[in-house]
Write a structure and sequence with these properties.
This protein has 334 residues and is mainly beta. It is built from 3 helices and 16 strands. The longest helix is centred in the first third of the chain and has 17 residues. The radius of gyration is 23 Å and the shape is globular.
């Protein structure tokens, strides 16, 4: 009997030793920084932003959402991250209402058409990278810089349906003369079912890829390679209370590399100026490579120098780093 128990123990150990997890192909794809989150508000809510239509809106969640932006919104974000990483956000979003000359005498006239536009930047990088020679002696400190510039336009085709387009331009400085650029675009739609429910649909990073040429560094030993970004599809459902005191949302995300996951989150207004948020991102059922990422945060709004100003905070759990990510942002509406 003791021999059988030992044999079973060895068998279990061998199975655990050689069993390989199902890895997520998209996690090895380029542009991961551009999929971490696009606003501090969104990151605190588990990145469920594709069907939002109130508050501060980011077109990177859904290009069609900018038609619902109230006023001119200037949005900034800075992340405190471990392992010498950085992530910075900057954007400006505005809605345009167009009226007919015949409506000039009616103060309650509704716009004949509504459009939205946004421009922004996401910057990420790693600093304090040791450059060492063949003997291990330190020569210098290196850093990388990866950037996403975007410009989006949206139009409201009816009271319920809006469609948007977003152009992406990437610039990546990896090492000395090794740089690359890429151009891609997003398409998004937002359909408002009623005052409470809305549905969003987006296609992101269409035709985006990095083309690398390492001949400036390695000469004739250099190579030309192409790394394609995952084409990401998002289906989102959002519910907001009639008095807008709370919002909850859930999203299904998939890509052309075989990855699919869920995320959910929401926010609740404790009182007029203070909102708390929480969510769960990256809930993958087909792989144990990365656990779900818990998120939480808050937003406090007040008037500063005559401008409506909101201070945002988000915490995002990161399982394979010494500490989670802390993101701080300021939103100014005027």
């Amino acid at each position: 009997m003791r021999t059988i128990v030992k044999a079973l123990a060895v068998l279990v150990f061998v199975i655990n030793l050689y069993a390989q997890p199902t890895f997520i192909e998209a996690n090895k794809a380029p542009g991961s920084f551009s999929r971490m989150g696009f606003s501090v508000r969104g990151m605190a809510m588990g990145n469920v932003g594709a069907a939002l239509r109130t508050g501060e809106l980011s077109p990177l969640y859904n290009p069609a959402a900018s038609v619902y932006q109230q006023g001119n919104s200037f949005n900034t974000g800075y992340s405190i991250m471990s392992m010498d990483r950085s992530l910075n956000l900057l954007s400006f979003t505005r809605r345009f209402d167009f009226y007919s000359d015949a409506d000039s005498l009616n103060p309650n006239a509704e716009p004949r058409s509504t459009a939205g536009a946004s421009i922004g930047l996401i910057n990420a990088g790693v600093s304090n990278i040791d450059q060492r020679d063949a003997h291990g002696f330190k020569l210098d400190e290196l850093s990388t810089s990866e950037n996403l510039f975007y410009l989006s336009f949206a139009n409201k085709f009816s009271r319920k349906l809006s469609i948007g387009f977003l152009a992406r331009f990437y610039y990546y400085s990896l090492y000395e003369d090794i740089t690359t650029t890429s151009f891609g675009f997003d398409i998004g739609a937002l359909y408002v079912i009623n005052d409470n429910f809305a549905v969003g649909l987006t296609l992101s990073d269409i035709n985006t890829k990095y083309k690398w040429d390492t001949t400036p560094l390695y000469g004739t030993d250099g190579l030309n390679t192409t790394d394609k970004f995952p084409l990401r599809k998002v289906l989102a459902v959002n519910y907001q209370a009639t008095n807008k005191s709370y919002i909850v949302g859930v999203e299904y995300v998939s890509d052309n590399m075989g990855t699919s996951f869920l995320r959910a989150g929401g926010e609740y207004s404790i009182f007029e100026k203070f909102v708390v948020r929480a969510g769960l991102d990256n809930v993958v059922f087909s792989s144990n490579e990365i656990p779900a990422l818990p998120t939480a945060g808050f937003g406090y709004s007040d008037e500063l120098m005559g401008l409506a100003t909101t201070v945002q905070y988000a915490f995002i759990g990161e399982p394979y780093t010494p500490a989670g990510r802390h993101s701080i942002g300021i939103v100014v509406n005027f």
